[in-house]
Design brief:
6-stranded mixed β-sheet, alpha+beta, 14% strand
Amino acid sequence: MTHPTDFPRDPNRPALPAALRTALQLAELGVPALPLRAGKCPVGNCRACTGSACGDRPHMLAAGPCQCPAPCHGWAAATTDPDVLTSPAWARAWQQAAAVAYHPGGARLTVVDLDNAEAIAWARQALPATKAVLTARGEHWIYRGAMQSSNGVRPGVDIKSSMTYARWYGPGSGPITALPDVVRALVVREVPVTRAVVHAVSLPTAAGKGVCCHRTPTYLERGIAMAEQAITGAESAIHASVYRVFLAVLSKHGRCGCLTEAHVARLFNVAHAKGESPRHCAAAWTNARTALGL
């Protein structure tokens, strides 16, 4: 993605606030923008939208049924529509704006927000190089591709992509690269275990004595086959995909006693074929069991 630097100015165009000019430049490139108040805060909701009285659904990718013309609803107000950005309802916000923000997910981008020198040093060791932008305290590393946002994935590291905003600090330097699996995996929350299982796999024992109590043995066989296909078909975030499949299998069959060592070996084998090590497979299985209380 090419970021704006200095667009030609139309001499016949009335002078615009600097923040609005930046927002219009971003919008031209398909990057949804919004104004920020002092302290990097979005503009507060208007009276009609305060407390979600308008019926908005801010957890969705848009502001729901609300048709408020003002820049309400935080990140959901970000837009690429120049008519909205320059509308009278937004004029006061731009006059008072302390900065400009954008919705990375809306532009199919992900920002790895590195808040200090230690976080930057970690990123240089652990993450593929990409476009880097200097911020007030650290750097923003920008990747092409959207994902779930999450704060505090590591000390001094936040992920800003879908359903959040990031402050615009400028075009940065370096070529932008594709969002890697290692970044996607940062938001996967596995239940920590105090003792990792490396070689042995502990299976739950229950009164089912190997017979699936949900339906028939065919139901179990179909479930294992579907789990194998899900792991084999994963194209990104392999470790996270393996964990989710293990979690799904155990949630269905982990308490009825129908799983055998042969079933688990089949799942581990396809995970190994996708590049998961025996240690990571065993840890994912143990974490999935712990998450389900098995």
